[in-house]
Amino acid sequence: MSAKLEALSQNLQEHLGDRIGALEVAFGEITINVDVGNYFDVMMALRDEPELRFEELMDLCGVDYSTYKNGAWDGKRFAAVSHLISIAHNWRVRVRCFAPDDDFPSIPSITSIWNSVNWFEREAFDLFGIVFPGHNDLRRILTDYGFIGHPFRKDFPISGYVEMRYDPDQQRVIYQPVTIEPREVTPRIVREEGYGDVENA
């Protein structure tokens, strides 16, 4: 571990203590897991502690772990993952918080800490169905108003449930059940003869 990562790791453990569920270092970056009950307070500390001072939230995304590790994942299904950057200290940290209920995933909103997260939380709500209590305008952002379901969930069918088309008789766009057959999408790999041979290199 580099000296910079070591310093950040020590500062995180010193200021957040047992509020960190786990601290992992991989690919030159630190990820901390935070329990949903500590999530808001930890995010406040990450922004406000002078020795941490993560002024900017660069991104927040939803994650569905239901098929992670080829289905061998045995933890909670949905998580919100945030990427923070400290301009003052020139370091980054990733914060992962799992929703405790897979049937109704809910994680506190942090829009009052970083207002840049507003649309990111709406996106995670729209695409994954993660609810963010405290968000003042939590509504769909990418899918249509009448859309049913959350298309980035791993159990959502690729073809969806409904399709829309223009009906010339009714002179308007209508919704109807999907007419295409679901199929397995397997990429076809075509290689030239002798591809990868050491002798032809």
Question: Are there runs of 5+ residues with pLDDT below 50, and where?
Answer: none
Helical/strand content category? alpha+beta
- Determine the fraction of residues in helical runs and give it as a percent range: 10-25%
Gross geometry: globular
Q: What is the first-to-last residue Cα distance?
A: 37 Å
Query: Which range does the strand content fall in?
Result: 25-35%
Order of helices and strands: HEEHEEEHEE
Radius of gyration: 22 Å
How would you write the strand order of the largest sheet? Answer: 1-2-5-4-3
- How many strand segments? 7
Largest sheet: 5 strands, mixed
Mean of pLDDT = 90
Q: How many H/I helices?
A: 3
Description:
The structure is a single chain. The chain is of the alpha+beta class. The model has no long low-confidence stretch (mean pLDDT 90). The chain contains 3 helices and 7 strands; from the N terminus they run αββαβββαββ. The protein is globular and about 65 Å long. A 5-stranded mixed β-sheet has the order 1-2-5-4-3.
